[in-house]
Structure formats: structure tokens, C-alpha cells
Amino acid sequence: MWEPDDAGLIQELHSTIETTRYLSGAAPWSREKADERLRSWFGEQARDGTTKYKILSNEDGRFIGRAGFSLFGGDRQDFELGYSLRQQEWGKGYATEIASGLMDWFFQRNFAQQFIAFTNPDNAASQHVLTKIGMRSRMPMIIDGLSCPTFEMTAGMRSA
Predict the structure, then answer these.
(1) How far apart, in whole angstroms, are the C-alpha atoms of residue 43 and residue 127?
(2) Which residue spans traverse the membrane (predicted)?
């Protein structure tokens, strides 16, 4: 879990156009936005039992990024898998390892019988990760005016 003074890590993670181009707003995060997101993740953890967590390397403890589940949607809320990695960690297989591990954790803890994930339409790397862990494509969702590829995973798909 995050520490109360980790907003600097979050801001660093989302400090460039490259690391935010596929996120809502597509702009580097201010310290205020990082503080707000950190507070929201503490709130999600208390309310829902899950959130976006701080990801550290097993080998040396360095900060890699954030990943986890949050509730998404209006009347019908779904758990949504999301992750962001530091740019220097891209291409090392961490996204697939993290997404796969979180999928197992999610179903072992019985949060729900399914979860979703969506990506910016131009984020082919993330779409590849989601299909690689076995998620299947479903009807796109409109997010920030974009038709975003959307994926789902059910407990039945995982055990099949």
C-alpha cells in the first residue's frame, strides 16, 4: 500500500507526455493531482478493499509503477483493472506479470465474478497485455469522447 508521503512518486510516474498520453487528460500530472489521486486510493481501499497499489521491484525494491482495481461506472459498477509503469520499466514484461498476478489475486479474494479493462484506442501495447492474460474483447466504451477498446475477464474464463 502507499505511504501518506508517496505523492512525489505518483507525480514522477505521470510527469511526462509519454507516460500520460493514454490517460484521461493526456497531460503530465501536477503535485496537486498526485495528492488527490493518492487520497482517492486510500479511500477506495477503505471502502472497496482494493485500489491501485504501489508496485515495487522484487529484486531491489525500486518503484516500478502502480496497478490494481477500482470500481468504474455509474449505475452498474464494474471492477476495472488499471496499471501504469515508469517509462524506464516498459518492455520488460512487467505489465503482463502484474496484470496476470492481479487477475489471480482478484478471483482468489472473490471481489466479483468479472472485471473489465479499457485502453486508449492507440495503446496497442496495453491491448496486447490484456489479450495475453486471456481477457476477451467486448463492446467499446466511450471515455473522454473516445471509443476505447474494452476487455473483460470472468472467473469462468480464468478456470476454463
Answers:
(1) 28
(2) none
